[in-house]
Amino acid sequence: MPRLLLRSALPLLLFAGLLSRPARAQEVTIGDCVRVLKGDSVAMYYNAGYTLTPIACAAIRRHTRISPTGDFVGEVRDYQVANDRLLFRLHYANGRRHGAYEQYHQNGRLVVKGQFANGEPAGIWEFWYRNGKPRQTLEWTGRKLPIRIIASWDSAGAQRASNGNGEWYDMLPGLNRRFGGPIVDGYAHGTWESRVVPGYRLVTTERYSHGKFLDGKALDFGSESYSDQALLSPRVEDPVSWAENVKFTKPCAELQARARERQAKREQAREFTPATYSAGIESYIQTLLQYVGPLLGGNTPLGRAARGGVLIIDMQLDAGGKWLTAANQLPGTDPGAVSQLLAIMQQLPPWEAARQNGQPVGSSIRILGRALNGSFLLSMSPGGPDLPATAKP
Fold first, then answer.
1. How sure is the predictor about 46, in pLDDT bands with cuts at 50, 70 and 90?
2. Burial of 392 per CB tally in 10 Å (0-12, 13-18, 19+)
3. Could you read off the pLDDT of 236-262 as tens digits, one per residue?
4. Engineered SS bond to 354: which of 12, 65, 275, 348, CB 3.0-4.6 Å?
């Protein structure tokens, strides 16, 4: 684990000066994010990603002691600001995590229990689902293969592995992919897989022998093989480690403005219905191809654009169902091809305009065409009420 970097930012002798120093406009300082409780005890405020944040808009409050050299000292407790519930309890010694570690779900249940030794996970760690049922038991060995799987359960409570044998599965952090496979004596053995959730489309396979990675295939990239590094080995997220690096967010006013903008977009998306064609998009595409097809083989703007590779054209449908040329096309798009396609679409049966809060509104449509094995494939993607994107999908 990285050494704590607070020593350069929070020496106790300078604490009072840092907290009282006036900040420049639009600049967040340590004084905006820290409150002295008593002596060397402080409350430090973070966002959900453990970036130091002004108190008024923080998500996490850390109660800790700070040494004269700026290290966390002894027991550290992290609370959710909104409801004052305990999220983490851990311990520090000599600037490193050392001792018992506990993580709690927002419902108050214990979800992780383990310990650190000199900054590294050590010994037996236990994990639970948010409903309190056991999830897995892992052992940090301190050897070349650091994580040994002892036991595993699914969310319904059925045991999938015991005494290091059986099957182990988890979600890849930050991705909607479930991964895992058989284990023997606590280590991956045989073929492991990762699949997209939902749908369980297979995207990666890897072969192991008693924990040793042999090779893998990335099916999303044409079954490309690799053998340099495993992608599916067991791992555990470590959110509190980010608190050991001093980083600051933006001022609250800017953060709150961004949050309002994100919320407005979410509400807009919930209340927005994309444009539709009464007989279905596939039916419209087949009709469109009947008119576009004869133009692809000749010296026409559409023909030249299609022979150039992938054809991407952005259109707009106004609130009255009338097709318009989008103002922002991708760089290199042939204006003649856009005009030719627009002229054809304006002659075809109309679409139903998109609706926002029940009212018809203008919206974007991206048309993608490509030549493949002597055929020309066409797809249409109705978008939101904003202008189409100006970057390739």
1. very high
2. exposed
3. 878 778 777 778 888 888 888 888 888
4. 275
Other CB atoms within 10 Å distance of the CB of residue 316? 19
CA neighbor of 63 nearest in space, from 243, 193, 241, 220? 243
Burial class (CB in 10 A: 0-12, 13-18, 19+), 260: exposed
Using the structure block, give the residue that is written with the tokens 């990675």: 213
- Give pLDDT, residue 249: 83
- Residue 251, CA distances (Å) to 18, 47, 59, 382 in order: 17, 12, 14, 37
Mind giving me the DSSP string for 313-370? EEEEE-TTS-EEE-S-PPTT--HHHHHHHHHHHTTSPPPBPEEETTEEE-EEEEEEEE
Beta bridge partners of 317: 323, 363
How does residue 391 score in pLDDT terms, banded at 50, 70 and 90?
Answer: very low
Per-residue model confidence as pLDDT tens digits over 165-223: 999 999 887 678 899 999 999 999 999 999 988 778 898 999 999 999 999 988 865 67
Which among 391, 257, 280 has a CA at the least distance from the CA of 329? 391
Helix 335-345 to helix 281-296 angle (10° resolution) is 130
User: What is the DSSP annotation of 289-307?
Assistant: HHHHHHHHSSSSHHHHHHH
DSSP single-letter state for residue 386: S
Answer whether 186's CB lies under 8 Å from 201's CB.
no
- In the chain, DSSP finds a helix count (H) and a strand count (E) of 6, 26
Contact between 207 and 193 under an 8 Å Cβ cutoff? The reply is no
Which of 62, 86, 87, 64 minimizes the C-alpha distance to 74? Answer: 64
Kindly write down the DSSP assignment for every residue of 84-130, as one continuous string.
--EEEEEEEETTEE-EEEEEE-TTS-EEEEEEEETTEEEEEEEEE-T
pLDDT in tens, 285-294: 888 888 888 8
Mean pLDDT for the chain overall: 83
Of 184, 239, 245, give the one whose Cα is nearest residue 210. 184
